[in-house]
Design brief:
Elements: E1 3-8, H1 13-23, E2 31-37, E3 43-49, H2 52-59, E4 68-74, E5 89-90, E6 96-101, H3 107-115, H4 126-140, H5 147-156, E7 163-169, E8 172-181, E9 186-189, E10 194-197, E11 209-212, E12 217-221, E13 226-230, E14 235-236, E15 241-242, H6 258-264, H7 266-274, H8 294-298, E16 302-307, H9 309-325, E17 330-334, H10 335-338, E18 349-355, H11 361-372, E19 376-381, H12 387-391, E20 394-397, H13 410-428, H14 434-454, H15 458-468, E21 473-478, H16 483-497, E22 500-505, E23 523-527, H17 533-544, E24 550-555, E25 567-571, H18 579-597
Parallel strand pairs: 16-17, 16-18, 18-19, 19-20, 21-22, 21-23, 23-24, 24-25
Antiparallel strand pairs: 1-4, 1-10, 2-3, 2-4, 5-6, 6-7, 7-8, 8-12, 9-10, 9-11, 11-15, 12-13, 13-14
């Protein structure tokens, strides 16, 4: 969450910073600001609460000509959403300007120490305390080359918590320092110009190469070069990676919102996720980045997934697939709880961390805890070069492309797709037959086409959203592998329309949630073809008997004759392995249209962030 952008070059920084912040809006924020080093050496700061457009309007009255600057979109953690708490934060003595993602856990004791020495905070933020701490240490350093870097480094030695920072100094006009600890920071290298950003989206095609900083590393940028060192002053050789950026992927391309565009991009995203990942004989999947031999994978006795939010629901769906195809016991953990438990794990346990961004702090912490205990850890992520991708022992990239909408859509369905393929691969290493494997492979290959067909429901779902736009509560119910999809459907509705929604296993409805059933609480049922269809139909009748509206998402051919629900949305008939993916799409469209009709910001829902990098 939050977005950092920094620029040092020969061009005017203001426009480049605003452009970078635009690219980072998807991360979620409630205030924004920029700061520059002006020609006279002064530090100029402009901040405001609200959308980036408000900052642009405010900046129209400022003549910022500096070629070195930093910008930030803040999502409030310490301190209310006010201009005083927005970033960049200026130190009490006016010498240091800082943008910060993360949380300084020991900020209170540091603030007391600094106040006794004349550095009193004006805001409620832990970030200003960090700016003051850097100012204090820079003032202590003797006037010599490297003083700025050493001042930042010494300050960070006293910090407990997480941070991704970009720092400017009044006395160091041609320099910028960045550092990270469990919060992402990327250096961009262009043509005689440098960038710092939370991710490569911040500098897009302006940078030729990127350097992904590791925890405990600092980058010192000057006019013509940069260097990287550790907190212990050890020099680090930069590993430059070429930046691949397609501008069209981060534009709306005629769609009214990024969320709708990304929903309609799912057939192509699914195609990209599967490309080159099927075996030559057409009976299995294969992945080049697992770094585990078939023999090692056959020795796995148990799989533990660690994930948060939508990614966790994808893992719950994968639990059914892996246990069915590969006969391996699976457990799905809340990543935020995993490292605080002392749950016993078998010696041959494989841990899989799943995160869209690859920077989710709880999932990253769970990964590190599993590795500390000696377990092999794989990752599934859409974040190329992300912390989770780099720290895992191996893994699989989703290749879904940039996702700008905060609520995950194509990232979720590509996670489902990748995990289904992984279940197939593990099954074929064990007892799944060639014929069964070939059936699943063919179903997966048909998936993009079937997803395209499912998207044709858009107009019908839009009409459904008009009908239910005033509802304040809904239930989403499913069984077996469709139960996690019910959870995801409820989550999407909550995220983008602010309607209270609950997802349940359909049979559990009788054990409490049925008390909510009324004409004011419609229920969505995932009623795809399979052995559980009859039981789902019975659950629908229980709800209808109590006067509530019912909507069924059903496979073609299962609702012939008298409809068993008030309204039926028909998706293509398909293999059970891919039904969860197809059933997800109508729920995404429904959440989107509900949000639009309720006048919600569907691309950037309130209080949410795309990449959750604080606990």
């Amino acid at each position: 969450m939050c977005g950092i952008i920094g620029y040092l070059g020969r061009k005017r920084a203001k426009e480049i910073l605003l452009e970078g912040l635009r690219r980072l809006e998807y991360r979620g924020y409630d205030s924004a600001g920029v700061g520059t080093v002006e020609g006279d050496g002064s530090l100029a700061v402009v901040r405001c609460v609200g959308p980036l457009d408000a900052l642009v309007e405010k900046l129209s009255g400022w003549n910022l000509a500096g070629t070195v600057g930093i910008g930030h979109t803040r999502w409030a953690t310490h301190g209310a959403v006010t201009e005083e708490n927005a970033h960049p934060q200026l130190s009490a003595d006016g010498s240091i300007l800082l943008v910060h993602n993360g949380v300084v856990e020991n900020f209170a004791s540091i603030a007391i120490f600094l106040a006794e020495r004349g550095y009193r905070s004006r805001s409620e933020t832990d970030s200003e305390v960090l700016a003051n701490l850097i100012a204090y240490h820079c003032a202590k350093e003797p006037p010599q080359q490297g003083r700025f870097l050493d001042g930042v480094r010494r300050a960070l030695l006293h910090v407990r918590g997480t941070y991704g920072i970009a720092v400017l100094g009044k006395d160091f006009p041609g320099e910028m320092v960045g550092a990270r600890s469990s919060s992402p920071l990327v250096l961009g290298v262009g043509d005689r110009e440098f960038f710092l950003a939370s991710d490569v989206a911040g500098f897009g095609s302006r940078a030729r190469d990127a350097v992904f900083l590791n925890d405990g590393e600092l980058v010192h940028i000057r006019e013509n070069n940069f260097s990287i060192c550790t907190l212990g002053r050890e020099l680090v050789e930069a590993a430059l990676e070429a930046v691949e950026w397609q501008e069209a992927l981060v534009e709306k391309n005629g769609y009214p919102h990024f969320m709708l565009k990304e929903i309609f991009e799912q057939p192509q995203a699914l195609e990209n996720a599967m490309r080159g990942r099927f075996s030559a004989d057409g009976s299995s999947a294969h992945f080049g980045g697992l770094r585990m031999s078939p023999r090692e994978l056959r020795q796995v006795d148990r799989i533990v997934f660690c994930a948060c939010g939508s990614a966790r629901y994808a893992c719950l769906a994968a639990e059914y697939a892996i246990e069915r195809f590969a006969r391996i016991p699976v457990e799905v953990e809340y990543a935020s709880e995993f490292r605080y438990r002392n749950a016993p794990m078998d010696r041959n346990t494989l841990v899989i961390a799943v995160s869209q961004s690859g920077e989710t702090i709880d999932t990253l912490s769970a990964l590190r805890e599993a590795k500390r205990k000696g377990y092999r850890v794989l990752a599934v992520t859409n974040g190329v070069g992300s912390s989770i991708a780099r720290e895992a022992d191996g893994g699989i990239y989703q290749h879904a492309g940039p996702e700008i909408g905060v609520a995950g859509t194509k990232s979720f369905t590509t996670q489902l797709c990748i995990l289904t393929m992984l279940a197939l691969y593990l099954g074929r290493l064990r007892d799944l037959s060639f014929e069964e494997g070939a059936e699943i492979v063919q179903a997966l290959k048909d998936l993009p086409r079937l997803a395209e067909e499912t998207l044709r429901l858009d107009e019908a779902i839009r009409a459904l959203a008009v009908h239910y736009a005033s509802c304040q509560s809904m239930l989403f119910l499913g069984r077996q592998s469709l139960f996690p999809i019910a959870l995801e459907g409820a989550l999407k509705l909550k995220e983008v329309s602010y309607v209270h929604a609950e997802g349940y296993a359909a049979a559990e409805m009788k054990h409490g949630p049925i008390a909510l059933i009324s004409k004011d609480c419609p229920a969505f049922f995932l009623a795809c073809d399979g052995p559980m269809l009859g039981k789902i139909q019975a659950n629908v009748q229980e709800v209808r008997a109590r006067g509530a509206d019912t909507v069924a998402i059903a496979c073609a051919g299962t609702c012939e004759g008298e409809p068993f629900a008030n309204r039926v949305l028909t998706i293509p008939r398909s293999h059970p392995a891919i039904q969860p993916i197809l059933a997800t799409i109508p729920l995404q469209l429904f959440a989107y249209h509900m949000g639009v009709f309720r006048d919600c910001n569907v691309d950037r829902p309130r209080n949410l962030a795309k990449s959750v990098t604080v606990e």
